[in-house]
Amino acid sequence: MKRFKNLHKSSLTTWPALAIVILLAIFHISAMSNVLTRNPSSTNDSMVVQKSISSNRYRIRLYPNANHQVLFFSATGRDGKVYQLFLFDVDGKLVKRANIRNKETTVVNNIEKGNYIFEVFSDDERIENGQLIVR
Q1: CATH number at residue 76
Q2: Which long-range contacts (CB under 8 A, 24 or more apart) does 108-116 make?
Q3: Residue 27's domain spans which residues?
Q4: How far apart are CA 74 and CA 33, in angstroms?
Q5: Residues 83 and 20 in one domain
Q6: 10 phi and psi, to 5 degrees?
Q7: Residue 127, number of CB atoms within 10 A of its CB
Q8: Is there a single domain that holds both residue 12 and residue 64?
Q9: What are the residues facing 118 on neighbouring strands?
Q10: Is the dihedral of CA 128, 69, 47, 35 positive or negative?
Q11: How many whole angstroms separate alpha carbon 59 and alpha carbon 77?
Q12: ∠ at Cα 78 (99, 118), nearest 5°?
């Protein structure tokens, strides 16, 4: 009987910790829903990268830092390869171009608000493409 009481007491001490974890999860979900339903015409800038084609042989990363209106471009694949990023506006005009080597990262900055198409090439082979939206 004493063993049952000890088990019961130890499970009582875990309830406050479990309740805190549950409350933190609810708070996090609530905060994320506020971010996702944010008014797109708000003063905060944002960048969205949507990939259309992805390569299995190469790891191309395009990730934004909307606060500074910059786009990070990195590539991992074969040694000695050069990767080229081309950024076009909706009229097809080349707006930005960046070249990197394998396992390098560069910053593409001063991107104006608008919709763009991007393409990533290596040795005249299209590796990835997609859309970039800057709000």
Answers
A1: 2.60.40.10
A2: 108/70, 108/71, 108/72, 108/73, 109/68, 109/69, 109/70, 109/71, 110/69, 111/47, 111/69, 111/70, 111/71, 111/87, 113/45, 114/89, 114/90, 115/89, 115/90, 116/87, 116/88, 116/89, 116/90
A3: 1-37
A4: 30
A5: no
A6: -70, -35
A7: 21
A8: no
A9: 87, 130
A10: positive
A11: 6
A12: 40
- Tokens of residue 88, six digits: 């076009």
Phi then psi for residue 96, to 5 deg, are -140, 155
Q: Which residue has the tokens 């471009």?
A: 73
Classify residue 18: in a domain, yes or no: yes
CA angle (53, 56, 61) in 5-degree steps? 65
Q: Is residue 42 part of a domain?
A: no
| Residue 22 within a domain | yes
3 and 56: one domain?
no
**pTM here?**
0.62
Specify the amino acid at residue 62: L
The string of pLDDT tens digits covering residues 82-128 is: 999 999 999 999 999 999 999 999 999 988 899 999 999 998 899 99
